[in-house]
Amino acid sequence: MNDDVRRAWAYLAAVAEPPCTPLIGLVDDLGPVEAANAIRSRSVPSAHRGVLRHTEARAATDTSGPDLDTCDRLGARLVTRDDPDWPAWQLLSLDRASTAARGGAPLALWARGPVPLPAVAERSVALVGSRAASSYGDYVAGMMAGDLVADGWTVVSGGAYGIDGAAHRSALAAGGRTAAVLACGIDRDYPAGHAQLLREIGERGAVLTEYPPGTTAAKHRFLTRNRLVAALSSAVVVVEAGRRSGAANTAAWAKRIGRPLGAVPGAVTSATSVGANAMIADGDAVLVVDAAAAVALAAPDGHDLKPESRSTAIDGLPRDQTLVLEALPARGGLTVDEIALVSGVRVADVLRALAGLDLAGLVDGSQGTWQLVR
Amino acid sequence: MNDDVRRAWAYLAAVAEPPCTPLIGLVDDLGPVEAANAIRSRSVPSAHRGVLRHTEARAATDTSGPDLDTCDRLGARLVTRDDPDWPAWQLLSLDRASTAARGGAPLALWARGPVPLPAVAERSVALVGSRAASSYGDYVAGMMAGDLVADGWTVVSGGAYGIDGAAHRSALAAGGRTAAVLACGIDRDYPAGHAQLLREIGERGAVLTEYPPGTTAAKHRFLTRNRLVAALSSAVVVVEAGRRSGAANTAAWAKRIGRPLGAVPGAVTSATSVGANAMIADGDAVLVVDAAAAVALAAPDGHDLKPESRSTAIDGLPRDQTLVLEALPARGGLTVDEIALVSGVRVADVLRALAGLDLAGLVDGSQGTWQLVR
User: Fold this and answer.
1) A5-19 average pLDDT score
2) Average of pLDDT values for B226-245?
């Protein structure tokens, strides 16, 4: 990526408060450099006029230089929608019309840590819950995180006090992979008491955020961040949650975008389990008692989500079929247009490839979208 | 009931280990006196030859005299299938072919206490669980039992240590109605430490058993007794249960005969909640956090199961229609033959009454059996 393009992406990543679906549409149409210029000059194509409103406040303020300097200084990177490190299919669920209105995909992600983002999201369970966790919640989060990473799963959470912190710490202590999705800039240690923890996650796992450097944590950003926690995980497990809890918001996102949702039960006398028990009672969440149950939720048919096992299945197929097959997620389905986007195969060739894969019994299009046959 | 008939019933109630479906068939065909004579003389009709095997061991031992003396001395009563105090429709579920093979209805019940058996069963919740309950389980059982009786529900349980005892005691303390179903004779205080508790239940609620006086508690009798706990309740709630628990057997009976099943969640770190959590996780039980949730389970549409509200609905109907409507249970359906049995209306008249009720939108026969329309 040349500097102009990188500067354009950094400008675009800051010019509208994420998520901003109209902005993504503009960038998809014009490319990042043209899109940035159009916004700066307030002269966007009429089809994208909606972008003006979202970018009005910040269009004249270009922080892309300092933002990229901060990023470099921290050893972080700016990952964009056209980057091989972009977790494309995991985030596709946020692109769908029904969810984009309330959330939408991120335009770019700022990330640090040795683990590539698609690898973070490939085989991962989100453990989320109250900041004001009980010792029971801390214990269960720690136990599950340790067992999950021992089994090769990534533990995704939000870096907060309470359940999040217990999950991250236990994953690190077990020598496993963990990812923290922030509601502030990659340069911010929030909460301050987790500065050391976030540093360790950044050294051994992944810290990521859609907010440009310097962005402070704010209430609406926690809610916006929660959709990424859900989207980047194969399943979401609420370990402990009171009657009102941010975890309920993450859980709602999991349901909305089709991620399996679990919850850990607790004593009916415990205020910190009211929310988790209610999710189970209402049929929104499956009761989960341990890491094995979380894995069963994330990979319900015992299908191993590791990339190597998927590639084994497609040896010897024509190239387009291979690309199309690899574009399909382990769970859920994609439309032909989405497959074309993820695979980079033209729509006409996607259709031809799907026909071949359907004949071979490898894909199924009977549910309205195309999905892998198990 | 004259003495000969009463003696015959007492003889029959002891001559086979319950449950004994073939024996019920014989008594239905011959009446109690003839049936008792046939068994004593080992000359049963060929259609009922199966009875011989079940009665061989005890046919020559007639304890009916002393059993009825014991019964009278305790202020107890022998309730038989032709008695107005027989909880007919609640026990019908045990008569069905699919369940009779493994359990079957009781031939008779020995009972003491001021509450008639149909009233015990009309609006009741069974609270069951481990004998080795934790203080958490004891607390929750007590809280739920107190709230249930305050709301006019009967609390049914098995009189055992642990959850059962906590539920009975709390119901009594709240001035409410509770019933204990025993796995031994009505004259036995089992467990011995609950002698005083069972006495109080017998004075203010109901103690009942299908076992004749003198019968000792035995493992198989607990399992057999559990089906009556389930059948006599509008819903069953497992408050606390370990991995292996008698409560799981009661829960299995609830599922088998179509009673709603709930379970109280507990910490995943608590051995005494493993069973209850598993029932919820497996989708066998609904997660129940309090008495209100148990009531919602027992009367899911808010339909008040009190007899008075049912009778209000049927004012002004022809007599046969009234009887047929009253024969139908609050939940589940009955066949025409079962309705004839419960209502005392001839099959031909049941069919005519159902046709009228169907036209009036009061019953629905589309599910293979006839049920009330809510």
Assistant:
1) 95
2) 94
Q: Nearest Cβ partner of A281 from B277, B278, B287?
A: B287
Which residues, other chains included, contact B177 with Cβ-Cβ below 8 Å and sequence gap of 6+? B115, B120, B149, B153, B154, B155, B171, B204, B205
Q: CA A360: distance to chain centroid?
A: 32
Specify the pLDDT at position B309.
Answer: 37
| Chain A residues within 8 angstroms (CB to CB) of chain B | 136, 139-140, 264-269, 273, 277-278, 280-281, 286-290, 293
- Mean pLDDT confidence for A338-367: 81
B117-298: CATH, from 2.60.40.420, 3.30.540.10, 3.40.50.450, 3.30.43.10: 3.40.50.450
Average the pLDDT over A321-326 and give the result. Answer: 82
DSSP bridge pairs for B262? B237, B286
For the record, the structure tokens of B262 come out as: 């709930």
B42: left (phi > 0), else alpha (psi -120 to 50), else beta?
left
| Whole-number average pLDDT of chain A | 90
Cβ atoms within 10 Å of A40's Cβ, excluding its own: 15
- Euclidean distance between CA atoms B282 and B137, whole angstroms: 21
A275-295 mean pLDDT = 96
The alpha-carbon gap from A297 to the nearest alpha carbon of chain B, in Å, equals 11
Number of Cβ pairs closer than 8 Å across A and B?
55
Q: The domain B307-372: what is its CATH number?
A: 1.10.10.10
Each residue of B325-357: pLDDT tens digit?
A: 888 887 788 888 888 777 777 788 888 888 888
Tokens of B251: 């829960």
Q: Which of B91, B305, B120 is nearest to B208 (CA)?
A: B120
Q: Nearest residue of B to residue A287 by CA position?
A: B281
pLDDT for A119: 92
Nearest neighbour of B269 by CB, restricted to A139, A268, A278:
A139
From the list A139, A265, A293, which residue is nearest B265 (CB)? A265
Residues of chain A with CATH 1.10.10.10: 307-372
First to last CA, chain B: 38
Residue A98's pLDDT is 61
The alpha-carbon gap from B267 to the nearest alpha carbon of chain A, in Å, equals: 4
CA distances from A143 to A181, A261, A289, A367, B230 (A): 21, 19, 11, 38, 37
Q: Does B264 sit within 8 Å of A287, measured CB to CB?
A: no
Find the CB nearest B281 among A139, A277, A293: A293
| Structure letter (DSSP) for residue B129 | E
